[in-house]
Every structure is written in C-alpha cells, then in structure tokens.
Amino acid sequence: MGRPFLLYAPVAVFSLLVIAFQAQAGPGWYVGSELGVTLGSSLDTVGSSNDRASVCDEYINPLFKYVESTQGYENTNCTGPDRGVGDDWQNSFGSGEGIQFGLTLGYRGVSGSSFRAELEYFYRDAGYDETSAVPGAGGASGDKLAQEIVTANEHIGSVTSHNLFTNLYFDFSSHSRLTPYIGVGVGLGWTELDYGAVFQRNIDKNAIQTGAGLSNADAIREKLAGSTTTAQEALRDVLFGYQVLLGIDYAFTDSFSAGIKGRWINFEPFKDGEERDTLRSHISNLRLDGSEPVKGYLYTEDTEIAAVSLTLKYRF
Question: Would you place residue 311 in the very low, low, confident or very high pLDDT band (cuts 50, 70, 90)?
Fold first, then answer.
C-alpha cells in the first residue's frame, strides 16, 4: 500500500465526519489539525529466530540426522518437533526525528465547562537510518559472534505509525484570548519498522569452529565459510499507548483559534518477525523439501515519543 494513500485516506474519512457533524451537531463540537516535529527515543532491541544449530541445516550438513547421536551433540535438537527459539542477540540504536500530522474531532459537553473530550488521529514518521553492529558478547550467539562471524550488522530505517487516541482535556480559564490546557489520552498505534540485517561468516574455513567433532566437519566448514544470512523487511505491530499533552491556544475569533501543543507518548514493546532473504547463503529453510522455514524476530523495549506541533481549531 503506497504512502500517498495512507496519508490522504484518513483526510477523506475525516472530511466526511466533519460534514456529518455540521449537519447535526450543536454548540460544543470542534475540529482541528496539527503539524509538527517528533522525536522517537533510542531503541534497545532483542533479536531471535526459530533457527536450529548450523549443523542441523540440511543444506550445510546432509548428515544432520546423525548429529544428536554424536558425543557432545546429544542436546543439539536437530530433529525434534519443537525448535523453540534459536540464537538471541541484543543491540541498540539512537533516537529518530521526523514529522507528525494530526486531525481531531472534539466535544465540550456543557457550555462553559473546563473539560472536553477528543478523538484524535495522527501520523508520525521518525527517521532512524542507523546501522548498528551487534555486540560480540552476551546471549546464546555470543561465542559464535566472537569466533567466526566477522560481520553482524542490523539496520533500522524509519519507524512510522498511524495512531488513534481518545483524549480528555482540562482547559484553564485565563480571562483572555489565551487558554492553557493539559490532557491525557489512551489509544493504539499501527506501527511499521523498516528493518535490515547482514550476518557473514569468516571466509577462512580454518576460523570456523562449527561442526568440530563430527565426521564431516571439514565439509561443514567449507560450506559455512563466507556464508551470509540477510534480511530486509517492513515489520508491523499494533501497540497500545498512553500520552500526556499540554498546550496553549489563542482565540482569534469565537470560532477559530491557533496554538502550540506538546505531547509525550509511551508505547508498549514492539514485536514482529520477518522471513530471511538468505540463510547461510541459501533459501531461508532448513530442509531441502521446504518443511522447516526459518523466521527471525525483533523485539524492542517500550518506545517513548516526544512531539511539538502547531495547531488550528474551528468551533461550530
């Protein structure tokens, strides 16, 4: 689905809502828009997969069925029905900056009340555009990273989301054209994260330790030497979040006002999986018959977002 459609479709839906409310809504309704900048917090990530050990890969080791009967490999699980989670690794990325665009539909229930409720849609696009090397220590993959993998890079391009929130505001009376306010809200963010990864082994087969002790260890080393695992995918998840808002409006007329709004949002952890483009330089599957596809997963900690926007409101 193209980005222009994602941007303009909500505007069209919102326009229909405005027409409907103009036809039937009394005093107290308002519509608004905003445009501003957003800052996404740094990201701490955990990667994992449903891969098995490299010696269990039929493309690498045609004798994988005999691995578990070899001394020292009794717990390798090359043929068990439950693969569980394979290697895990941790990484971190800096903050991302971008734009934010929003539309609102609000209602003040009683004339003169300081409280008002609001349904809010906003879109954000934070550009991280960062490649980060996976640290060589920690996690199940620590020894492998230290011994034979020479390149272990992950990349995050941009993080975008379409968000729908319900907000409750309290307006402070200032007996002037200026109206400060604070608010809280809860909602959902349909989030997309552009992810890429490259893992490459040493081209020198003598640096490969995987398969040591197996009868065909030399053949395994030759196939693994220089092999790469790559991924490039748009990951998606729907995240619950809550936010705190504050701002100030200036009333040019009884119906029209403009202002500045700030917000802080906290979204729950993001998690999604992607098909590997290549797994150890072959298709992302452990079996020649295609029966064991391999998928990677990315998990992030809670994501915090700060934003500042210019706002416009029109009251009916």
Answer: very high
- Tell me what percent of the chain is helix, strand and coil, each rounded to the nearest 5: 15, 55, 30
| Paired tokens of 188 | 């959902």
Q: What percent of the chain has pLDDT over 90?
A: 72
Report how many helices (DSSP H) and strands (DSSP E) the chain contains, helices first. 3, 12
Joined tokens for residue 57: 């890969």
Using alpha carbons, select from 242, 244, 252, 266 the residue that is nearest to residue 311: 252
C-alpha torsion sign, points 182, 184, 189, 194: positive
Residue 4 DSSP class: H
Q: Say how far apart CA 56 and CA 86 lie, in whole Å.
A: 12
- Greater pLDDT, 4 or 245: 245
Q: Pull the structure tokens for residue 266.
A: 């906290």
Taking only Cα atoms into account, the Rg of the chain, rounded to an integer number of angstroms, comes to 26
What is the rounded CA–CA span in Å between residue 98 and residue 96? 7
DSSP state of 214: S
Q: Are 152 and 228 in contact (CB under 8 A)?
A: no
Q: What is the pTM of this model?
A: 0.82
